Amino acid sequence: MPTLSQPLAAYEAGTKAWFPDDVQGWVSGTLTKEPHISESGQVELLFTLDETGAERMVTTTMAKLEAPGGVDRELPPLRNPPLLEASDDLTSLSHLNEASVLHTILNRYQQRTIYTYSGIVLIAVNPFFDLNLYSPEIIQAYAGRRRGELEPHLFAVAEDAYRCMIRDRKNQTIVVSGESGAGKTMSAKYIMRYFATVEDPESMSSRRPGSHVMSDTERAILATNPVMEAFGNAKTTRNDNSSRFGKYLEIVFDERHEIAGARMRTYLLERSRLVYQPEVERNYHIFYQLCAGAPDELRAQFGIGKAADYHYLHQGSEEHLAIQGVDDAAEFQSTVNAFTTIGVSQETQRQMFQVLAALLHLGNVAITATRNDANIAPEDPALAQAASFLGVDAHELRKWMLKRQIQLRGEKIVSSLSQAQALAVRDSVAKYIYTCLFDWLVAQMNKSLAPRDEKSAVSMIGVLDIYGFEIFENNSFEQLCINYVNEKLQQIFIELTLKKEQEEYAQEQIQWTPIKYFNNKIVCDLIESKRPPGIFSTLNDAVVTAHADSAAADNSFMQRTSMLASNPHFEARGTKFLIRHYAGDVMYNVQGMTEKNKDALLKDILNLVDSSSNAFLVGL
Question: Are the beta carbons of 572 and 561 closer than 8 angstroms?
C-alpha cells in the first residue's frame, strides 16, 4: 500500500471529522484506522459515528485530492480538539469550517454563553429569555476594558467603538444584522443604553457622572426606543417585536467625548402592514396600545373601541390580537411617557391619537360592489367618523374613494372605480397618512436630540439596525425589498472584511491561505440592475404597461422575467420565482406585487387630504 501523501497527512487513526446530518446538521465521527490507498490511487477512509456507532466510508482518489481544493471537496471537515471547542473567538480554531463554527457556537450556547467573537465580528444567538447580562453592574464592568479582557459581549463592542473613536479620531459605526427574530432590535437598544449610562473610569470630570445621573439628552436618546417600537414594530411569525423599518442612529460626541446629541434616519417602513397582516401577525403596536390603554376621555372623543372592532387590526384569529406576556395598556403608558421625555406636548399627542383613530375608522369603511362599480353607503358610520377626525367632508371623501378624475385634451373626465380599485384607494390613503406621521415623528425626535451647538459635535458612533433576512411561507414584495437590503449589507461586509483584507495581504506579500467566499454581486445585480434590466426594473416596466389591471400587470411582470433566466440565481416557477440569496433560497409570490410596487395615491383624494381642516394632519 502506498504511504500517506500530503493531502491525507491530517487524517490519522483516531482523527475526528464532521458528517452532514438531516436532523442535527452535523455529527461527529472518528477515523477507525489509517486511510487505505490502493495501487491504482483509490482512497478509502472508514469512520465510526461517535453517537450511534454507525460506519461511514469515504471513497475518493489521489488525483481528486491533489487537485486544487480537492481535500475540502472530497474529505469530511476536521473537528477541533476539545480544548478549542468552547473558544470565545472562532479565529482561534485550528480547523475553521462550517461544522466546527456551528458546534463551537452551540457548545457555548448550551453553557448559556450567547456571544462569540469571530475576529472583529460579534456573533449573538437569541436565547429568547432573560439571562441578566445587561445590568448596570455589567455595563460598568466593561467600561475602560479592552476587548478580550472579559467575555464577549455587546458592551465590549460598544466600548471598543468608543475607544477607537477617541484614539483614532475617526467616526465609528456598529452594524447589527441577522435574520428575522435574531434579536437585532434588542441588541441595538442595549448598545444605546450602554453609551447613555456607562461611567467613564478614565475621566475624572466624566462624560457620565459617577452619581449615575443621565443628562436630558441621554434620557431622550433612550426614550426614542419605546416610541419607535410602538410606531415601527409589530408581531410577526418569527418575532413578537419585529422592526418593520431600518434605523440608523448617530450618537454625537463633543470634544470632551461626552454625548452632545443624536441623529436618526429610517429606511423602508413596511407600509402594507397598516392595511394587511397574515393571520398570526399584528399591525403596528401603537394601535393595540391605543385600544387597550387610551383613557376614557380619548375613547369617547375619538370613538376608540377594542382592537377586535377594527378591520385593520383584526384580520386573523382572536387569539393573535394580544401578545403573550405583553400588557398593551402598560406599553401605551410607556409610549406616552417617552413622548413627554422627548418633548412632545400632551396636545400634540392628542392630535396624533386623533389621526390614528381616523385610520382605524377609515379601515372600517365598507366598500361593496354593484354590477360594475364600487359603492359606499352614504350613512356608513365609519365613513362619518373617519372624515370628521381627518377634517374633511364625508361626501367628498366618499366621492373620491369611488371615482377617478383624469384630464384628457383639456377636458376633465370622471370615471367610476371597481370595488378592488376603491379598496386600493382607501388603503393607499391610510398608508400615505401613516407614513407621513411616522416621518414626522422621526423629525420631531431629531429636533429633540439635536446638539445644542452644532459646532460642538466633533465625532459620532453610528448604530445601524436594519431588517433581518426573511423567509416565510408566503413571500412578497416586502420580503423582496428586505432581502435586497440584506444582500447589499452582505456585499459591504464582504468588501470590508474579506476582499480588502486579502488584497492588502497580497500587496504586502504576506504568506496566507486565501479564504474562499461567495461574492453576492451577481445576486445584487439580478435585483437592482438597470441594463440589462433586473427584477426591480422589470417590475417597474410591468406597472407602466399594464397599470389598469393589477392581475394583468402581475402576469406581464412574470412574462418579462424570462429575460432573467440566464442568471443562475433566478428561477421562474409559474406565478412565483425563486432567488438564490446568500442566506438561502427564497420563493416569491408574484400575486399583488405590482400593486404594492405602484402604491399610487390618486391626485383628487390627495388634494382632499391637503385641504383638511385638521392643521396637524396638513402639517405632516
Answer: yes
- Per the residue annotation, which of 29, 178, 181, 183 is the catalytic one? 181
Quickly tell me which residue has 374633511 as its cell. 392
* Known catalytic membership, residue 180: yes
> Per-residue pLDDT for 203 more than 70?
no
Instruction: Given the residues 232, 468, 520, 534, select the one marked as catalytic.
Output: 468
3-state secondary structure of 247: strand
Task: Let me know if 118 is a catalytic residue.
Answer: no
181 catalytic residue (yes or no): yes
User: The whole model's pTM is what?
Assistant: 0.86
90 and 103 in contact (C-beta within 8 Å)? Answer: no
Please confirm, yes or no, whether 613 is among the known catalytic residues: no
Digit-coded pLDDT (tens) for 139-189: 999 999 998 899 999 999 999 999 999 999 999 999 998 888 888 989 999
* pLDDT reported for residue 546: 63
Residue from 513, 540, 517 nearest 529 by CA: 540
Of 492, 426, 440, nearest to 269 by C-alpha is 440
Is there a catalytic annotation at residue 185? yes
470 is catalytic: yes
User: What average pLDDT score do residues 15-20 get?
Assistant: 97
Residue 242 is a catalytic residue: yes
Whether 317 shows a pLDDT value over 80: the answer reads no
- For every residue of 205-243, which 3-state class applies, written as one string? CCCCCCCCCCCHHHHHHHHHHHHHHHHHEECCCCCCCEE
